[in-house]
Amino acid sequence: MDLRVKRIIEIIDERLTDKLSEEILSKTVNLSAARLRQLFKKATGLSTMQYIKRVRVKRATHLLRTSFLSIKEVTFRSGLRDVSHFVRDFKKQYGVTPSEFRARIGDKTRNRRFC
What we know:
Layout: H1 3-14, H2 22-28, H3 33-44, H4 48-66, H5 71-77, H6 83-94, H7 98-114
Helix pairs in contact: 2-3
């Protein structure tokens, strides 16, 4: 994998809650936004923005599993700005809404305790 792409992935992980754009990221590794898109897509199979969205939703999943934060708070702590977009993206990726996901996790945890 190209070292610049690896560095972008590190930056995304470190600054997930920041406003990230291809322009900002490309400047950090001295590439044009177009060249970054090409390299990133070749290395990951995803566009830069698709990758960021996927990482943010994955972080939200972790928070839903491990915290009692509200859906709104999970949204913001994952670097997402709009709850309705988060719910839509989450459902698209996992097939259930964040609330349904949390309820299923809770049901599994409760069932394990009493089995």
